[in-house]
Amino acid sequence: MKAISNIYLTWRKGKGHRRHIIGVLRRNATDGVRFEYIKDSIPKASEDGFAPYVDFPDIDKVYKQNVLEIFGQRLVKAERTDIKKYYDFWELNMKMVEDKYYMLAYTQGMLSTDNFEFLADFHPIKDLCFVSEITGLSARKVDTDSVKVGDELRWVKESDNKFDTQAIQVYKGNILIGYVKRIHNRVFSKPSKERLRIVVKSVDQNGSINRIFIRISY
Questions:
Q1: 116 plus 146 within the same structural domain
Q2: How many domains does the chain have?
Q3: Residues 104 and 132 both lie in one domain
Q4: Torsion angle of the four alpha carbons 17, 101, 75, 95, in this order, in degrees rounded to the nearest 10
Q5: Which residue range is the domain that position 148 belongs to?
Q6: Residue 152 and residue 154: Cα distance in Å, rounded?
């Protein structure tokens, strides 16, 4: 999987709150998949109410056993009746859907019962395509008519963001819509980033725009 570097575990208090990058999953041929917390991030996250993942309670430990098996429980079961629609939404390579590391990277392992997400650090290689989400919508109250499925959006690296030095702003024309998710935005700082495109994948709205999913491709 040349497109995927590490996968970062993030957590936030809830919608509208800042994501904390609290852990990292690494995979190599020798050790398989390892998980460890990013200890420098824990104090700030704890101020928001963060508690360690139940199955990985020790923030000082490097976990090497059953990491994918445990985190893989968050993945959608292939037996679902709408599984084809789910695969299509996340633009998955059908040859890779049995690979839990790949699936966590591309579907983000989100559940309605907690606020953890798995965000991959992608490389801009040929045919890269992944689905992400625009953040910061609640601060902007984007007009419901301003963004539609299929719209191509413009991205700009923000030069003075004190919270994230790799922050990427997303515009529809001259209107600032929001930002690319943390970690996912790193791909825009890598060589050949100019070829990256952002297209609106899905818009969730009910009187106002709640979520905008985007397709990032190379």
A1: no
A2: 2
A3: no
A4: 130
A5: 125-218
A6: 7
